[in-house]
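re: ur question from yesterday

yeah so i grabbed the chain u mentioned. its 623 aa long if i counted rite. heres the sequnce exactly as i have it in my notes:
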Amino acid sequence: MTISSVNYGSSLLGLSVRNISNQLADLSTQLSSGVKSNQYAGMGPDEGFAIAARAQLSNISAFTLTMTHVNTVIGAMNTSLQSLSKIGDQVQSGASATPQNLTSTGQTTGQQTASSNLSAIVGILNTQVGDRFIFSGSATDRPAVAPSDDILNGTSTQAGLKQVIAERQQADLGLNGLGRLNLSASATVPITLAEDVAGSPFGFKLGAVTSSLTNATVTGPSGSPAGISVDLTAGNPNAGDQISFSFKLPDGTSDSIKLTASTTTPAPANTFAIGATPAATSANLNAALNTALTTLANTSLVAASAVTAGDNFFNTASAVSGTVVNNKAATPVPITGATLLSGGGGTDSIVTNFATGDTITVSGQTITFVASGANGNNQINVGDSVQTLLSKIDALSGTSKASTVSGGVITLRTDNAASFSLSSSNAGALSALGFSGTVTAAAPPLRVSGTPLGSATSLVNGSTTTVAWYTGNSSTGTARSSATIRIDTAQSIQFGAQANEAAIRNLMQQTAVYAAVNTPPAGANAGQQIGALSERIAANLTPQLGQQAISDIQTDFANAQITMKDATARQTQAKAAMQSLVDQTEGISQQDVASQILQLQTNLQASYQTTAMLAQLTLVKFL
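ran it thru and got these C-alpha cells back, copy pasting raw so excuse formatting
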C-alpha cells in the first residue's frame, strides 16, 4: 500500500499562510503609498463622502486660482488709479498757479505740462495685465482710449478736440463777437440787449439786470428771445449810480458786467460818462456796454466755450435736451426754472398740469406727485417749480452735472447714458416739459451744426465725424459689473473698470481741454482769457459732493478685495475639514499599519515553521 503526501497548498494551514501573505502585501502597499487602497473598492463604505469632499477641494482650488488672478488685476488697477490721482493733482496745481504767464508758444507752463500729462493718462488707461486691457470694460481685447495725438488733433477723416473747441468758440462768440447778443445801435433810445435766438445752446444767456440809475427805466429780461431795455429819456443819472448785467455762460457758470455813471474825463474803465443830454449819456452807456461785452466774450465766454466743447467731445453720456416750450401766462413765454408744475390759466406754469398721484420714473426710480408735504427725492408737490423737479431727477440719476433749463429748453444730464431713462404717467405734462414717450440719453459726441458757425443754433450727432476718445465697451449696468467672477459656490464679485467712468473721464477731459487751448500771447485779453480757463479747469478738478472721485473707484476695489479675503478664510477652514475627511476615509496610520505588519510577520513566521514541521512528517515518524 502507498501513502500519498499531504497537499499543504489546499489545506487550511496553506490557505492561512496565503491570506497572511496577501494581508502583508496590502499593508506594505498602504505603508508605502499612505492610503488604504489604490482602488475605490478597497477604501471602505465611507468613500462616497471622500469623493464629494475631493470635489469641494477641487472647487476651492479653482476659486483660489481665480482670486489670485483677480487680485493681480485689481492691484494693477489701484496702481494705475493712484497714478491718475497724482496727475490730477499736478494739472490742478498748474491751473491754480498765479500768475498765469503765457510763454511764446501761446500757452502757460501748466498747459504745456498738461499736454505731457495727457499722454501719460492715455498710457495708464491702456494698461494690460496679461492679455487683458483693464480699463476697457468687457472689451478686454482692445485698448480703452485712442492715442493722445488723435484725441487732440484728430485724424484725416475725423475731428479732434482742438477743432471741436475752435468750432464751438465761433458759435458762442457769434458773428458780432458779443456772445450771441444783439445790442442796439449807439444812438438808439432806449438801449436794448437781447439774445439772438430762443433756445440756442450758444453764447450768453441773459440773467438779471439791476440798476440804481436815477431817471432810468430798466425792464427785463423778458420775451422770446429774452431781452432787456434801459431807457434814460427821463433824465441823466447821478455820478456813482450803477447798472449791473448778469449772464449765464454755456458751461453753467455766471458772470456779470457792472457799469458806473461818471463825470470823470476820460471815463475810467467800467464806467460811462454822463453826457450833456440823456441821449448822449445813453450813447455813452451803450458804448461802454459794448466794450465790456466784447471783453467778457473774449475772456470768460471763450474759456466757458472751451470747457463746454470738452464736455461735448468727452462726456458722450452727458445730456438729452427737450424742445422749446412756453408757459401758460397771458402772453406765453419760454418756461424757466421758476415755472410751476401746476397752476391756473394766465400763470407762469406749464401748459398741462401735473396732478396728485402722477409719477415720473427716473432710471427705475419713481417720483410721486403729492398735494403738499413732499418728503425726500421720491416725492414732489404738484405746486413745486421746474427747478425743484430737475433737482430731484438729478438726485435719483446721480449725475455729476446739474440739469438745466434755458430758453424754454430743459437739458437733462447723466453720467451713464446706457442706464438713463425718464418717463411719466402724465404724457401731457411731460410734453409740457418738452419731452415725449420714454426719454433716453443721447450718447454721441456733439458738434456745431450749420454755416456760418457764428449763427448756428443747434448741436448735432458727431459720431461719424469726430474721434471717439473711448474705444472700450460701455456696460449696460455699472462699470464694475462689466467684469464679474465667482469666488465661492454662492458668491461673486464685480471688478470691471471703464475709462469713461465719470471720475476718470473728467480728469482726462479737463487735462485735454487745458492742453488744447492756445492763446496768442500778444492778444489784448490773452492773460484774462487764460486766467478764466485755468480757474475753470482747477474748479472742475475739485470733486463735488455726490460726484464720483477716483478714490470712490479705489474703495470699490478695496471692498472686492475684502470680500475675497473673507472668502479665502472660509475656504481655508472648509479645505481643512474636507481634507481631514478624505484623510480619515482614505488615509492610514503608519504606526497602526507597522504594528499590524509586525504582527502578521510573526504569524507568518509561525505558520511557516508549522508548515515546515508538517512537511517533514512521515508514517514512521507519525507512528
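noticed a couple things. DSSP finds 13 helices and 22 strands in the chain. also The mean pLDDT is 87.
anyway ttyl
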